[in-house]
Design goal:
The chain is 14% helix and 30% strand. It has one domain. The model has no long low-confidence stretch (mean pLDDT 88). It is globular and about 45 Å long. The protein is of the alpha+beta class.
Length: 73
């Protein structure tokens, strides 16, 4: 009842149609993780990254390797 929350299951994404991206603001340093469609350039914002723990949660939740992620400024 008042115990631990269940961890959400891994959410699959279309690896052929979307690229994992972290958008970084030069002014504020804010980082947002999501997926970008390489054809249309549309960015789907999923998580605000405040620290390394948020990044590791994003990697685990969407089953993405850190070397797959591209950074945009």
């Amino acid at each position: 009842m008042f115990g631990r929350r269940k961890k959400p299951a891994a959410i699959p994404y279309d690896k052929r149609g979307k690229v994992p991206v972290i958008r970084c603001s030069i002014c504020t340093g804010e980082q947002v993780a999501g997926f970008k469609d390489p054809v249309s350039g549309k960015f789907e914002e999923l998580m605000l990254l405040r620290n390394d723990r948020d990044l590791s949660e994003f990697l685990q939740r969407y089953q993405v390797e850190e070397n797959e992620i591209k950074r945009e400024w």
